[in-house]
Amino acid sequence: MRDTLKHQGLRNRLVEVLIAKGIKDKEVLKAIKKIPRHLFMDSSFEDFAYQDKAFPIAANQTISQPYTVAFQTELLQLNKGSKVLEIGTGSGYQTAVLLELGVKVYSIERQQELFKKTKSFLEKRNYRPKQLIFGDGYIGLKEQAPFDGVIVTAGAPFVPNPLLSQLKIGGRLVIPVGDKTQIMTLFIRKSEKEFEKHEFGDFKFVPMLQKKN
Ligand code: SAH
After folding, report:
1. 43, 64, 82, 165: which is the annotated catalytic residue?
2. CA 205-195-135 angle, 5° bins
């Protein structure tokens, strides 16, 4: 598959939709305008890639809805050079959005099939995360902590403690919390022991599962 003018036109329309839904961060919108989302999906979904919807990828997982990707990324409030941990590499689309912002990305995926597929896809497309890890996001990535931001892209039944403790002071964890549906939740680390919590309405994710597979 190639990236054509038609795809670019559809991306411009998608960005208009995201603005209408309340996304304001110029850098995030610019990233979405630039990244060929259709290449992160199965070719049979090519015609739908710029609808604001989630779609199936390998291993029974989904590529998140563009609005959700934009919303979570906006909540992280990142700068160039920020260090970010992503839980749930999936298709790599969210990873690419983070990279486009100029941040250093570490991303963990628990499904081996997806991990391998996405690793080689990102390499081929010249997206360069600092590290892609086949592992369990519940334990975070202690070796590379602390992080400016941690983003969880699967529905977490509870907030894993390591993800809070691996934040810098001032760092942000964005995590959808809940079983059937999830409440988008932001934690800001105020000090060694204090975290501020904010909630942002309902979203729907595939579940965050324990251990790798
Ligand atoms: N960010 C992805 C979203 C993929 S869906 C994208 O933009 O495409 C969520 C992903 O989280 C799935 O690939 C799933 O396998 C993964 N996942 C679920 N539980 C996990 C865990 N404990 N650790 C790491 N990845 C996990």
Report:
1. 64
2. 45
- Local confidence band at 152 (pLDDT 50, 70, 90 cut-offs): very high
The C-alpha atoms of residue 182 and residue 13 are separated, in whole angstroms, by 28
Whether residue 107 lies in the annotated active site: no
Stated pTM of the model? 0.97
Residues 156 and 208 sit within 8 Å (Cβ to Cβ): yes
Which residues, at least 6 apart from 183, have a Cβ–Cβ distance to it below 8 Å?
176, 177, 199, 200, 201, 202, 203
CA of 175 to the centre of ligand 1 (A): 12
Location of structure tokens 């990324």:
73
Copy the structure tokens of residue 112.
């081996």
Side-chain-facing half-sphere of 113: CA atoms under 13 Å: 6
Question: CB of 151 closer than 6 A to ligand 1?
Answer: no
Quick check: 29 and 13 in contact, CB under 8 A?
no
The three-point CA angle 46-13-25 to 5° equals 110
If we measure between CA atoms, which residue out of 72, 71, 39 comes closest to residue 57?
39
Q: How confident is the model at residue 21 (pLDDT cuts 50, 70, 90)?
A: very high
pLDDT number for residue 168 = 98
The domains of the chain, with CATH numbers, are: 5-203 (3.40.50.150)
Crossing angle of helices 112-124 and 93-100, in 10° steps, is 40
